């Protein structure tokens, strides 16, 4: 029931998802009348693979997470997470209030053994392929141990979902020399250098390495990660703005833009934030994916793809195993 | 003598700068023989406006700032800063080692009364005009008072150099609501809301607002600022990489690119980091500008432009006056 456009986007997304994932089944939580009305026209396509479960309320996009956690236990969001907790569903996908989704998921599902804080991860394009960046805003301040948790969750995601046997993991810092940065990044780097994890720890990386594709996983605190990823989005918009304006300047450049329109569309698709699956909430005992609130059916369908990949890839078993496998003296430091 | 390309870039830049600033005079510090050799061919253009001062050593690009500060007091960098200290020069521009330049400048010039830490500022293009972002890496951790200092230095720069009578200043955060963020940003916001400064404090901004042009000055700690600005640079490179690749895909798009080449050049100029003056070291008793180490003559000439604008605009008097004008109880908090 969440997101700026409401449940119609979710139902449209299901049309794609049912085709792409022939074995998947879906439970829609929310206003029964409204949802039945939306799926009525698609009854033949949906069949028994889509069921509706009534929830009398919903979490508003501007409600405080603490309020939602206390007062919205009969909401579509609460019930959807509950269906993961009971084992009826293997993953939950929502376009709703991010803070409430995180708070309710933590409360109901709990954290994976050994993980002290969950993180929000995002996947971004690079010059080589793609990169997982985390944390993108779940934690404004992080100590060394939490950054190590994020590295473990990031490499587990890269292995389980992106299929990389030994992901390259870097820690974002203001320089690549060992002496640079504050205590948290220096402490995390020391633990990761000595850890025996199924990844290649490349040490410190700088902001430009995100786009260059130097690593598969970029680890940072939620403050830096959130500001950085929004700045990247803003830069993509800025360049698209300048490019459009420049191409409109003369008759010649307009003609050029028409001839190159296929190439410009390819560029747009490559940079389309909808294609990158939204925010992945890692560290929870369950798969939780947050689609962009302003997304459309295509974006929501990508978020469903990611949720299915995470559940099928067994990401949470990987996180638990890798966290437990960190040498005890490193964990204790 | 610094920078990846050495003094030839600096001497080439002077050709432009002497034309653009008919009243300016330049002192070149460094290896006398090498510099005289470089300016020999341009003797007629340079005349008495360019003089050479011998310095027997130089700071290497990879030397630690603490080492340079102790052992490089006969270097070109030290002597150039010294000429600002003695009043012989009004500004210093260097393409050398950033950390050493900051350390030597702090040691020789000292900080403006009331400012506790210097900051490195960068100017970036936006959808509307441009934005000053600071700190870009001088301080990896910052408290509320330091963020307030940065806001004062940023608005003084925007007034003195960009000519904005009442710059809009925002604090980078993970959300725009007052409750968001860590203690330092919340504390700084409270001081700035109550301060009587020649600026419009717009409260918290998010990473995407940098490119959107919502503010003229974006304030953040040096860790976040450094990672963010390098990520922005990396994103610009990433998009340029995809754009070139997309335009090469077919004969049609290649033809389109040729017709639109004027527009594509305009885009490249707009996003050219050389055009934005390098790193401006604010808070010091003197004007210090760091040009990109890998820059060419055009980039170095832009850095000289910025240094002259800062000196002529009296930025340091503005910073001192605005910092002193902050209400004493706010300063003490």
Keywords:
Isopropylmalate Dehydrogenase; 333 residues; disordered C terminus; homodimer; two-stranded parallel sheet; alpha/beta; eight-stranded mixed β-sheet; 2 domains; globular
Q: What features would you describe in this structure?
A:
Chain A is of the alpha/beta class. Chain A folds into two domains: 103 residues; 171 residues, Isopropylmalate Dehydrogenase (3-Layer(aba) Sandwich), CATH 3.40.718.10. The first copy, chain A, contains 15 helices and ten strands. Chain A has an eight-stranded mixed beta sheet, with helices on both faces. A two-stranded parallel ribbon of chain A has the order 1-2. The radius of gyration of chain A is 21 Å and the shape is globular. The relative contact order of chain A is 0.16. The interface between A and B is large, with 60 and 60 residues.
CATH architecture of the largest domain in chain A: 3-Layer(aba) Sandwich
Q: What's the structural domain tally of chain A?
A: 2
Overall helicity of chain A: 40-55%
What is the 3D shape of chain A?
A: globular
CATH fold-level assignment of the largest domain in chain A = Isopropylmalate Dehydrogenase
CATH class of the largest domain in chain A: Alpha Beta
